[in-house]
Design goal:
homodimer, 360 residues, alpha/beta, Rossmann fold, N-(1-d-carboxylethyl)-l-norvaline Dehydrogenase, domain 2, 2 domains, eight-stranded mixed beta sheet, two-stranded antiparallel sheet, 15 helices, 12% strand, globular, glycerol-3-phosphate dehydrogenase (NAD+) activity (chains A, B)
Chain lengths: 360, 360
């Protein structure tokens, strides 16, 4: 979910407080990869990684372990289905997984000896899983987070971008950003993920990558209200642009080490575009503006079990703004919060938008 | 159309070569406004300005002259229709114009004594009109260009942004950017245009505003190809993001005085979003990708007399890249050119997108 929420809910250190870790001096002879998570996005990245380890066999163990939360689908275990039919019929139906992607229901077994951990699962499951992973992983393991804000005690890079899972799985061209602390480790992760249709750029700013990845879901709620009210692209583009400036200001205010130019990477402007035109926060907010105004009900009826991240994020973000007494400098975030939480009318986002010109 | 084309076709100085003009020392007692042009956008801004001069009567003559190229609509002169029914039935039907907007068919009469000239018409008409305007205008007139790249011998500001005319006319919230050389004059123009639903920000970078306004139509062709090929928002957001970087690089290469941060204004990222999702360049390029591959025919059948700006712009821009021998540093612009002009397959924009990672 977010840097902020994982930290506060789970008691972990925020990523920004993890001490910088240098690239490992002694690299493993062969890297062993474990993908922790097997939903839509986890299965998609396991597919990419499996294709790459097959191709790069001298550097990587070709088999990729994918930890799967076991469930029964049509009377059969999901791990068995994946390992025999090479398809995650529940979360990524219709897409063939490479046969070297091995579904493993036992977490300790999946993570055993892993030198590269790829986290792709809802953040709320982490606290329960991390101790097991810590024990099983290789002592010099590195990690890449496709969620946000976690600490495992090993060097973490953060991979984010304009990545709708189904489109990535289909092999459509797209980009992503890796925010890193250790460049050497990030380059290893880039090797593991990169394909001609999946281009990665390395940026030494994991915090910026996380901030934009977190707040874009909030801005997408604003974009959804605009859609639900029937406004056109002028208005939506204006809200998105103001949102970009408040994301930058949020970074300056709370994480001054953030790099401003990260906004021009895939994890910034491109992910914002994708999320504000196609994402589930936008979709639910569009319906919210039309009514009924009940997030729980909309989440249950529209998302088929997926979570609406923007709403819990804006609650947490607004508390940070209040605690630091800077609400007035974030008029758009404040408006979105009040529409989501305080029965403020969605129309206010348009009526009050002219107040969003805070002084620079 | 563009800074570049007006200059080369009409022999005018580019805006960037117009000497900076200081704010006028002696302001006119009362400013007299002439809107040159009465199409969709010209009529929309005449409506805004008319509402404002009515409200700001001590500073502005309340009547706003709008030069209208005379034509007969349903047996009646268009100027007569506008002046009696207060509606431009041909170019902005269904929207009431304030009664103080006066349609004038004679250009010299419309511009007579004008202290503020607002240019909102296709650039190709300018060369014929400018001498008449030069003679009729007040000697200390200032101008604001809603087109691009013109020189009238007076101080010019440039107004651009995510402004689909019909949405602005409807009073939907939107933003725009004024790029200026003289801040005092730009503030006067801001006063003339601004409304609660039409927010303007002043930026001392008229060149940047023009570059983004010009090149966004080219990037929108790329976005249209992606749409026509059936790709989703990942791919489209990636092309738009690469496009932003090549727009910035174009500025650095040809107009080093450009300010990079202008990309974060309405004339930059927001206008790019609007144009790549809603604009006519995108629309025609989508159809082009599906076939037939004939721009003239698409323009004639899809735009109802409006012009397709992106195609002529990329021809001109590509010539600039060739002349300076920097084509290799602009792989996306080069791809779009070759798809438009050299029978390169639209699919190449996706196949070759990974080559668009030029070194920084």
């Amino acid at each position: 979910m977010s840097l902020l929420q994982v930290c506060s809910h789970a008691g972990h250190l925020p990523l920004s407080q993890v001490a910088a870790v240098q690239g490992r001096v002694v690299l493993a002879d062969v890297e062993r990869v474990c993908v922790v998570g097997s939903g839509n996005w986890g299965s998609t990245v396991a597919r990419i990684i499996g294709q790459n380890t097959e191709r790069l066999g001298d550097r990587f163990d070709r088999s990729v372990k994918m930890w799967v939360y076991e469930e029964i689908v049509d009377g059969q275990k999901l791990t068995e289905i994946i390992n025999t039919r090479h398809e995650n019929v529940k979360y990524l139906p219709g897409v063939e997984l490479p046969s070297n992607v091995i579904a493993v229901p036992d977490l300790a077994q999946a993570a055993s000896g892993a030198t590269i951990l790829v986290f792709a699962l809802p953040h709320q499951f982490l606290p329960k899983l991390l101790p097991t992973i810590q024990q099983a992983r290789s002592s010099n393991a590195i990690a890449v987070s496709l969620i946000k804000g976690m600490a495992t005690g090993c060097d973490i890079s953060v991979l984010m971008g304009a990545n709708v899972a189904d489109e990535v799985a289909r092999g459509d061209f797209c980009e992503a950003t890796i925010g890193y602390r250790s460049k050497g480790n990030a380059e290893l992760i880039k090797t593991l993920f990169e394909q001609p249709t999946f281009q990665l750029r390395l940026i030494p700013d994991p915090v910026g990558v996380e901030i934009f990845g977190t707040l874009k879901n909030v801005i997408a709620l604003g974009a959804g209200f605009v859609d639900g009210l029937g406004y056109g692209t002028n208005t939506k583009a204006a809200i998105m642009r103001i949102g970009m400036h408040e994301m930058l200001r949020f970074g300056e205010t709370f994480f001054p080490e953030m790099m401003k130019d990260t906004i021009l990477e895939s994890c910034g402007v491109a992910d914002l575009i994708t999320t504000c035109f196609g994402g589930r926060n936008r979709k639910c907010a569009e319906q919210f503006a039309r009514g009924p105004r009940d997030w729980k009900q909309l989440e249950a009826s529209m998302l088929g079990g997926q979570k609406l991240q923007g709403v819990s994020t804006i609650e947490h973000v607004h508390k940070m703004l209040r605690d630091k007494q800077v609400v007035g400098r974030f008029p758009l975030l404040d408006l979105i919060y009040r529409i989501c939480m305080c029965a403020c009318e969605p129309e206010e986002i348009v009526r009050s938008a002219s107040t969003c010109y805070v002084a620079d």
